[in-house]
Write a structure and sequence with these properties.
By secondary structure, this protein is an alpha+beta fold. It contains 14 helices and twelve strands. The protein has helices spanning 3-23, 25-59, 82-91, 97-107, 142-145, 158-162, 172-178, 221-228, 249-263, 280-323, 325-333, 338-375, 383-409, 413-418, and strands at 68-71, 111-125, 128-138, 150-153, 167-170, 188-191, 194-202, 207-208, 211-212, 216-220, 236-241, 276-279. β2 (111-125) and β3 form a beta hairpin.
């Protein structure tokens, strides 16, 4: 058949199918709704998984890409085994100031080494009290080992650390809450039971997952160990190459790992590391693996929604064939071939499912926008999910439209004309 004739036949079939869709609006809307729900569920799940991945990437933004972090135990080393992680936290030896000093002594020529301790205390000033503020004991080089930047004032110095001074750098949230009308620099606040002088204010780092990242106070690590004790909390040790062009992060990791094993007398043995090494790259790889596993489990479940939508389409079209038996007989009587009837019904079901797919994408877009606004997660509609939704909608129309279309095409014209 020439192309022009085929095109004309397709256009005529599409016109008839569209007229049928418009003439039976209630049935069409119900059919479309079934596909809309299925497509919306799939697209929303895809957006959530991609958003979770982006959330992890954003959450390590404070982690400079050329810095590694040594911790007592990191969740990523244990996959989804929370019990093993908890046991490691309980049984592994803490990372102490002595470990930091050892690494500085052995590696300080080529590697910048620092540390951070974490605690939580109330912070007060003039009757205003903030509970559960993150108190971080840090080495003076913390600004070189993280993305923390000083907005005004100064950072903590070696003199502050060595003399265990009661000075601090605060986040923007503390400025807003405790110093709403006066400048923070040079003023005092109370952390726990001790008074501290504010010497610097950090640049705002915004919020993550709806939670502010600016509600913290940093004090010298020496002061931190004086307040909390040198062995009461495990530190996180940070390290990076002083010359990143000459030494890669992998080389830094290897030297730090060997040095800690030497200190703990496990070098040359078959014992596993009793500490964890974390990098931005390793966190992202872990998150990609985790979201991949979740996707493998969830996407087949969401496919059930599409399958149900397909069943709705097929049942509606079967009902349509029954209702339009006489119409089909008339068409056959005036020369329509079985192939023409088959084509018309396939186009009709595909049209309905594609419209349902578009509605599903619009609905998913609205829901994703609301979720992003409510949770501050970096949620967007993945382009691949939108394209897949359209393709799947067409496939649902064709696959689940075949049975009704073949039933319509198989009708006997004479029997069809007798139908009332």
């Amino acid at each position: 058949m020439p192309f022009s004739a085929s095109f004309n036949l397709f256009r005529e079939s599409f016109s008839l199918a569209w007229d049928s869709v418009r003439a039976n609006r209630t049935r069409s809307v119900l059919t479309i709704f079934g596909v809309t729900v299925g497509v919306a569920v799939v697209v929303i799940v895809a957006a959530l998984l991609q958003g979770a991945q982006a959330f992890i990437v954003d959450s390590v933004a404070a982690f400079a890409p050329d810095v590694l972090r040594v911790e007592k135990a990191s969740f990523q080393d244990f996959g989804a085994d929370g019990q093993a992680f908890a046991e490691a936290q309980a049984k592994r030896p803490d990372l102490l100031v002595e470990d930091l000093e050892y690494l500085v002594e052995k590696l300080g020529g080529e590697i910048e080494v620092g540390a951070q301790g974490n605690a939580s205390l109330p912070v007060r000033r003039l009757g205003n009290t903030l509970l559960g503020v993150s108190v971080q004991g840090v080495t003076p080089n913390i600004t070189e080992l993280t993305n923390l930047k000083i907005a005004y004032g100064r950072g903590l110095t070696s003199t502050d650390d060595n003399f265990r001074r009661n000075v601090c750098v605060i986040g923007q949230d503390l400025v807003d809450e405790l110093f709403p009308t006066t400048g923070a620099l040079g003023n005092e606040l109370r952390i726990g039971q001790d008074r501290y002088t504010v010497v610097g204010v950090a640049e705002s780092r915004g919020s993550l997952f709806g939670s502010s990242q600016d509600g913290f106070v940093q004090i010298p690590l020496g002061t931190f160990t004086r307040v909390f004790g040198s062995r009461s909390r495990s530190l996180a040790i940070l390290a990076k190459a002083k010359n990143t062009e000459k030494m890669s992060l992998d080389e830094v990791e290897e030297q730090v790992r060997v040095a800690i094993r030497i200190r703990r007398k496990t070098i040359g043995t078959s014992e596993e590391d009793d500490f964890s090494v974390v990098t931005a790259k390793s966190i992202q790889a872990f998150s990609a693996s985790l979201t991949g596993i979740v996707g493998t489990i969830v996407f087949p479940l969401t496919a059930i929604a599409l399958f149900v939508g397909g069943i709705v389409v097929m049942n509606m079209m079967l009902a349509s064939v029954t209702e339009r038996t006489r119409e089909i007989g008339v068409r056959m009587a005036v020369g329509a071939r079985r192939r023409d009837i088959l084509t018309q019904f396939l186009i009709e079901t595909t049209t309905l499912t594609v419209i349902g797919g578009l509605w599903g994408i619009i609905a998913a877009g609205g829901i994703v926008w609301l979720l992003a606004w409510a949770t501050q997660l970096p949620l967007t509609l993945p382009i691949w999910a939108v394209a897949a939704a359209i393709a799947v909608s067409c496939a649902v129309g064709i696959i689940f439209g075949v049975i009704p279309a073949r039933q319509a095409a198989a009708l006997d014209p004479i029997e069809a004309l007798r139908s009332e």
